[in-house]
Amino acid sequence: MIHLHNLTFRRGDRQILRGVDLTINPGEHWTLLGRNGCGKSTVLEMITGYLFPTSGKIDVLGNRFGQVDVREIRKRIGYISPALIEKMTLRDPVWEIVASGAFAYLRFYEEIAEEVRERAYIELERVGLKSLAEQPFGTLSQGERKKALLARTMMASPELLILDEPCAGLDLYEREKFLSALSELTSDKMSMLYVTHHIEEIVPLFTHVALMSDGQLVASGPKRDVLTPDKLQAAYDLPLEIRWRDDRPWIEVGKVEQR
Ligand SMILES: Nc1ncnc2c1ncn2[C@@H]1O[C@H](COP(=O)(O)OP(=O)(O)OP(=O)(O)O)[C@@H](O)[C@H]1O
Question: Cys-Cys crosslink for 34: which of 45, 89, 143, 212, Cβ 3.0 to 4.6 Å?
């Protein structure tokens, strides 16, 4: 599904990625964790073909980047990023925003086929937003916008879902609603890579975790093997304890020394 081979990325005199290797198999749902600036979004931008590595190889959905038209592969990937949210036209009705996902357009300039409209309503119903379908996108709360974009992503039946901090800025209620919509929508036929700063977002849906530090993966594998106090302490440089409840991890931070 995804194979990253020894990816490096250099910008000027900064080494941003220092040899990233990662394999995501079909049906695995991964979270990517790590401190601000460690290179998480850079990895996502490479998997979606918006950035090219300085060296290394990228295989996504059976295609080697550099040998294929990435626009064709992108049609099979659902990608929700902060940049995408900013590109949406706030005055467009929610259902139109969702419908545009069927074609990977940002917006429509022609009439939308009835079956596409119906499908958009179905996807909106699946995320619990059908009653808001006719409202302008800009009137939705941040959490509702994220769920609408999730519905938009589902219009193209993606084989791979890439989510860059989708719960950033959401309150507890909106976050839990988003995570439960995500758990409902995804199947084990779809692979996922989800970047977050919040370990408690690793709901049972997620199977694997990759931990990044300073442009490298310092641990990766099944979530219980990676989410250990030792590994997290090393990556976050903080005294941490982890508790599992209903297959979901919760973090406790110990006393932090000022340096
Ligand atoms: N095009 C670029 N030119 C120069 N520096 C860049 C470029 N893209 C990213 N960087 C730098 O690379 C580092 C990694 O950025 P990236 O956005 O991948 O980190 P991140 O782990 O996603 O961070 P955050 O958690 O804060 O979103 C940062 O220090 C950033 O400033």
Answer: 212
Q: Is 42 in the pocket of ligand 1 (CB under 6 A)?
A: yes
User: Which residues in the chain show pLDDT less than 70?
Assistant: 104-109, 259
State the span(s) of the chain assigned CATH 3.40.50.300. 1-76+158-167+187-258
State which of 16, 20, 44, 167 you would mutate to test the pocket of ligand 1, scoring each by most atoms of that ligand within 8 A of its C-beta. 16
Q: pLDDT per residue over 82-128, tens digit each?
A: 888 888 889 999 999 999 888 766 566 677 888 999 999 999 999 99
Atom of ligand 1 nearest to the CA of 44: 18
- Do β-strands 77-80 and 160-164 pair in parallel, antiparallel, or remain unpaired? parallel
Q: Which atom of ligand 1 is nearest to the CA of 38?
A: 21
Q: Which two tokens stand for residue 4?
A: 């990253």
CATH of span 1-76+158-167+187-258: 3.40.50.300
